């Protein structure tokens, strides 16, 4: 499918676009002329404020600066708008040298249009291939064999169950089937406790919906559905019907179609909801008073599921180090930075200090983050389903959020859910 970004539109923008590029950088920091100095490395990241791992990252930068006294490092920080800010900076040829962001939506097209480099050669030349998990290399490699970025953060994405709330409602043990989940939800509601909380109006609900639909889809079938927007297969229709059955049986918290990830975490962290589907960085944020009586597992299955165990999501594309065309001019500085970030001691600190899952090999465990560590140990107790992020065309991502909100609206038929999902691909 054709990317909404083209080489002409992205890299050969007219003077009008370039002239508007610099003000958009104010959200992170302005790029001064000195940033083109070969002795200044400019790194653009989502780490540096409250994002999980930010404190560890800032300490790593401090150590890197101390070890490289002749090299200045400028750290630019953005949140969810990082991709847009980077693209604007690239139009003005003022982009940072290294970008730390996930493989999702806009970033899927960057390497293809020349906004960032294929780093496969650097990975081998710098002797770092063996440091990366094979699954991560596969996930970051595009259909033309190009490695989009140096893989770094990964995530496990299990389901967290507040055991104390379940037991208060008379539910003993984690639900493993849809029928068990429905019965548990009824008991929880009878005790004034919301069952499953999710951000039905953002990416958290989108991922949970995709996970439930895949109850009846093989990996290849799921890849086809989320690449093409074709949800008409028998498995996809059965998965949507399963979701609708759970929703209309009261499994999800009230009015989830209006909630966000922040709402979800607040409900779970305060004991207002008993269950949430949460990536490992969110599990690391669960307060100790809740974590000590929380178990992690998979999403319950329906009869006839293609999986034999409850499902989780897992991703190796959460954050990578992308190299820009400007960064190519500072290859020595970029190499020193990437090598430093790949060092076992640096990687270990993200695991032990921040509870991050990594796409880079390490023997360290997140022992200070019990739920993250428990998710890392799930192993063969769960089945893994596809995280669709790298297969959904960028133009369909935001429409899929809208479709997700529609889907979580109680009373929406399975046929309407399917229509909403497929309509998200009309502009692709």
TrEMBL record:
Q: Does the keyword Secreted apply?
A: no
Quote the SUPFAM superfamilies the UniProt record gives: Periplasmic binding protein-like II
Gene3D superfamilies xrefs = Periplasmic binding protein-like II
For this protein, the record's InterPro entries field holds:
Bact_solute-bd_prot1 (IPR050490), SBP (IPR006059), TAT_signal (IPR006311)
Q: Does the keyword Lipid metabolism apply?
A: no
Q: Which UniProt keywords apply?
A: Signal
The protein's matches in PROSITE patterns, at most eight in alphabetical order, are given as: PROKAR_LIPOPROTEIN (PS51257), TAT (PS51318)
Q: Write the signal peptide boundaries.
A: 1-32
PANTHER family in alphabetical order: ABC TRANSPORTER SUBSTRATE-BINDING PROTEIN, ARABINOSE-BINDING PROTEIN-RELATED
Question: By what name is this protein known?
Answer: ABC transporter substrate-binding protein
List the source organism: Streptomyces cacaoi
């Amino acid at each position: 499918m054709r990317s909404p970004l083209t080489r002409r539109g992205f890299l050969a923008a007219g003077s009008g676009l370039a002239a508007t590029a610099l003000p958009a950088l104010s959200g992170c920091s302005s790029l001064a002329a000195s940033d083109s100095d070969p002795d200044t490395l400019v790194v653009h990241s989502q780490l540096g404020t409250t994002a999980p791992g930010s404190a560890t990252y800032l300490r790593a930068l401090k150590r890197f600066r101390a070890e490289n006294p002749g090299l200045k490092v400028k750290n630019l920080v953005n949140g969810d708008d990082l991709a847009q800010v980077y693209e604007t900076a690239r139009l003005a040829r003022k982009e940072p040298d290294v970008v730390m962001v996930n493989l999702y939506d806009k970033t899927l097209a960057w390497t293809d249009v020349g906004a960032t480099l294929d780093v496969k050669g650097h990975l081998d030349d710098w002797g770092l291939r063996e440091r990366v998990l094979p699954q991560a290399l596969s996930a970051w490699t595009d259909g033309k064999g190009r490695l989009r970025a140096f893989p770094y953060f990964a995530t496990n994405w299990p389901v967290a169950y507040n055991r104390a709330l379940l037991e208060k409602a008379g539910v003993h043990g984690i639900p493993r089937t849809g029928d068990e989940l429905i019965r548990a939800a009824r008991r929880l509601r009878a005790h004034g406790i919301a069952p499953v909380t999710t951000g039905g109006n953002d990416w958290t609900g989108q991922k949970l919906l995709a996970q439930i639909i895949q109850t009846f889809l093989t990996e290849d079938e799921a890849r086809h559905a989320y690449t093409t927007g074709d949800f008409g297969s028998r498995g996809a229709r059965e998965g949507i019907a399963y979701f609708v059955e759970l929703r209309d049986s009261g499994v999800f918290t009230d009015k989830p179609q209006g909630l966000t990830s922040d709402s979800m975490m607040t409900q779970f962290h305060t004991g207002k909801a008993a269950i949430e589907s949460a990536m490992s960085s969110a599990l690391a944020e669960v307060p100790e008073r809740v974590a000590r009586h929380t178990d992690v597992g998979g999403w319950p299955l329906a009869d006839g599921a293609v999986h034999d165990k409850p499902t989780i999501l897992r991703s190796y594309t959460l954050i990578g180090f992308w190299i820009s065309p400007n960064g190519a001019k500072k290859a020595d500085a970029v190499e020193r930075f990437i090598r430093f970030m790949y060092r076992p001691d640096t990687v270990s600190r993200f695991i032990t200090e921040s509870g991050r899952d990594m796409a880079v090999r390490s023997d360290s465990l997140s022992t200070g983050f019990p739920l993250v560590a428990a998710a890392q140990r799930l192993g063969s107790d769960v089945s893994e389903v596809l995280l669709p992020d790298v297969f959904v065309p960028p133009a369909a991502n935001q429409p899929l959020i809208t479709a997700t909100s529609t889907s979580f609206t109680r009373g929406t038929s399975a046929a309407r859910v399917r229509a909403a999902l497929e309509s998200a691909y009309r502009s692709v």
